[in-house]
Write a structure and sequence with these properties.
This protein has 354 residues and is an alpha/beta fold. Helices cover 25% and strands 23% of the residues.
Length: 354
Amino acid sequence: MQTKYWHALEDGRVQCDLCPRECKLREGQRGLCYVRAREHDGIVLTTYGRSSGFCVDPIEKKPLNHFLPGTPVLSFGTAGCNLACRFCQNWDISKAKHNDVLADEASPEKIAKVAADLDCRSVAFTYNDPVIFHEYAIDVANACRERSIKTVAVTAGYVNPAPRREFYDHMDAANIDLKAFTEDFYHRTCAGSLAPVLDTLDYVRHETDVWFEITTLLIPGLNDSDAEINEMTRWIVANLGCDIPHHFTAFHPDFKMVDRPSTPSSTLTRARAIAVDNGERYAYTGNVHDPNGQTTRCHHCGAALIERDWYKLGGWNLDAYGRCQGCGTDCAGVFEPAPGSWGSRRLPVRLSSR
C-alpha cells in the first residue's frame, strides 16, 4: 500500500518521515522497521491487511486498568518494529525479518465484524508497534467506529509529530511504554531516543481526548534505581498530572538480554511506593502475582474500588458515574455502570476461517 509520510532527497534516496529514525532508502531497501519499503519513487507499507495472529484478551492485559475494566478486546499485530530493544519479549513478531509470521489476512471491515460478533468492546493494536502499520491501523479504527467499537494502541510512542497527530485522531485509548528515563538507556538498549517519547506523552495528554496509561518494564541494574524511578515519576506528575495510571512490570530474560535476572517483585513494590510518594494516584505492579499492587484504590479515602487478581476482577466499588461508592470521589478513567465479565480468558481466533 502506498503511504504519504516520506519525501525525496536530492541524492536520489527517499526518506521515510513516519518516525524519528527517518530511514533514507534506495530502491528495494526497507527501513529498520522492515515493513516500510522503498518502491519506485515512494514508500509502501508491505504488511497492510496481514496479521501475525488474533486473540481475544482481557483489556487488563494490554495493560489498561481504567478503560472499560473486565471487557474483552480483540488483539492483533503485524511484523516488525521501529525500535531495537535488546530485551524485547515479543521478538519473534516484532523482529521478524520475513512475512511467514503473517498467517492471517484480514480487511479492516472483517476485523471490525469479527470483533462485533465476539462481543468485544474494543480492538487493540499490539504485539508489535502499530505506528509502523499506521495506515492499516487507521483503516481498522475507522471500520470499528462504524460499529461503535473502541480502538487501543499499545505503543512505544516513537513517532514523528505529523503522523502522530493523524494516528491519535483515530484512537480511543493507548498504553505507551516509557522504557526508562535516560537517553543512555534508549540509545544503548533500544537504539532510539527518550525525547520523542516524552513529546508523545505530552502530546497525547494535552492535545487529545485519548485515554492512556503508561508501562515501564523494570530491568535489574539498568533502569530500576530509586533515583531514576524518582525522576521519572516526578516528571509524570509535573507534566502529565496525577491521574495517569502507571504500570511497573517485571522483566524476564529474553531475546538478546539473557544475562540479566528476572525482576524481583520487591523491585516493583518499591517503584510503586516511590510513584505514590511523588503523587501518582494509580501506580500498579504487573507480570507478578500481587493483588494489592494491582487493585485500584480511591485516592481520597483509600477504599478498594476495583479488586484484581492477575487479570480477573473481584470487588467493584464504583458507582454508575465512576465515583467511589464510599466517599463520592471521582476515579479517573473510562468506565461503564458495571464491569465486564470476561475474566482472565485468552481466546485465539483465526479470521481466515471465518
